[in-house]
Design goal:
Elements: H1 9-19, E1 27-35, E2 39-43, E3 49-53, E4 68-75, E5 83-86, H2 87-105, E6 108-111, E7 115-117, E8 120-125, E9 128-133, H3 150-158, E10 165-173, E11 178-182, H4 183-197, E12 203-212, E13 215-220, E14 223-228, E15 249-257, E16 261-265, H5 273-277, E17 286-295, E18 298-304, E19 307-312, H6 324-327, E20 333-342, E21 347-352
Parallel strand pairs: 3-5, 14-16, 19-21
Antiparallel strand pairs: 1-2, 1-4, 2-3, 4-5, 6-10, 7-8, 8-9, 10-11, 12-13, 12-15, 13-14, 15-16, 17-18, 17-20, 18-19, 20-21
Length: about 350
């Protein structure tokens, strides 16, 4: 026995720890022995061989033979001698650690939504289910449509499913199983630099991302711009959809800049036809026009393609009970007299010829 190897106390303690029988709920470490369609086998050393069943496959899709993994013990010993393991809990625990670290650092990460609802995009990141709300999408992806167009909102969100999106983690709470992402936060730093390069009066190009009753939303290199309905054309605009559609590339002039959005004008890139069309008009001259609108305070008259004038109710007769609807009908043509021309205010007043 002179050649017998001496065993240190540390080695004895290590061997004893390694030979301890695992219990349900334990976390164990091992090496992947094989990856098959219906199972993954993991070498647990002195603690035996672990089996990860098929239902856990989604948590092991990136595993290869030889990889070191952590798993949770579901059943210490099955009939076939294997230790039944779950990667789900281990993956989630590790995932939460990664998520909290990235939340604290403000790091930009990539996600791939797997589904959508009208509130936003459903995401799985590091084994954890999360959500990217509509309100946290960038100008490029925000579904700018009419509030009543719920089906179109969902259609626009579904177009982002299975696409890679760069985001930041906005909120993460393991206890409440809450994980919220923001694309707006991920692009914020770059937008600040772009905003600094822009100034009022610049002409820009952008892609139409939404057409609503009050105007047109435009993506200008990640910055959101709005062409208000009053800035689309020098003509009267009844519907912005008559001028542009989603996906169109347009040119516009920057007329105001705030911290989150550009105010744009399409009409200011072309000469105002009103100016040239009123050149021949003078006070007292006779004009012919078409009734376009009738209101309690008078009627609006189109006297040329870009010029609309007003016949005030005070020009229709004596007394306060004059009803413009009893005097005019829509689309009828009549003769009028020019009472006043306010070029600065772009207003023309008319009266009925007698």
């Amino acid at each position: 026995m002179a050649n017998a190897k001496k065993i240190t106390m540390d080695e004895l303690l290590k061997d004893e720890a390694a030979s301890k029988k695992v219990m349900a709920g334990d976390t164990v470490n091992g090496t992947v022995l094989s990856v098959k369609k219906h199972e993954i086998l993991i070498d647990l050393g002195a603690q035996g061989v672990g089996l990860v069943p098929r239902r856990e496959a989604s948590f092991a899709r990136n595993l290869n033979v030889g990889d070191e993994v952590s798993a949770s013990v579901v059943e210490a010993e099955m009939d076939d001698g294997y230790v039944l393991l779950s990667l789900r809990k281990a993956v989630k625990d590790k995932g939460w650690d990664e998520i909290i670290a990235k939340l604290e650092s403000g790091e930009t990460v990539e996600i791939v939504p797997f589904d959508a609802n009208r509130g936003g995009l459903l995401v799985e990141y590091e084994g954890i289910r999360g959500f990217l709300p509509v309100s946290q999408l960038s100008a490029e992806h925000y579904p700018r449509v009419g509030s009543a167009d719920k089906d179109e909102i969902l259609q626009r969100l579904n177009s982002l499913v299975n696409k890679t999106i760069k985001v930041r983690i906005l909120d993460a709470n393991k206890k409440d199983n809450k994980l919220i992402f923001s694309e707006k936060e991920a692009v914020k730093d770059g937008l600040a630099e772009r905003f600094a390069e822009l100034k009022v009066g610049d002409t820009i190009k952008g892609v139409v991302t939404g057409v609503v009753d009050f105007g047109v939303f435009v993506n200008v290199d990640g910055i959101e711009g709005l062409v208000h309905i009053s800035e689309i054309s020098w003509e009267r605009v009844n519907s912005p959809a008559d001028y542009v559609k989603v996906g169109d590339t347009i040119e516009a002039k920057i007329i105001a800049i705030d911290k989150e959005r550009l105010s744009l004008s399409m009409k200011q890139l072309v000469e105002d036809p009103w100016i040239s069309e009123v050149e021949g008009l003078k006070k007292g001259s006779k004009v012919e026009g078409t009734i376009t609108r009738i209101t309690p305070f008078g009627a609006f008259v189109q006297i040329s393609p870009a010029v609309e004038a007003l016949v005030h109710v005070s020009e229709l007769g004596e007394g306060s009970d004059v009803d413009p609807e009893k005097i005019f009908t829509l689309n009828e043509r009549k003769n009028f007299k020019v009472l006043d021309i306010d070029k600065e205010g772009r207003k023309i007043s008319l009266s009925i010829t007698k």
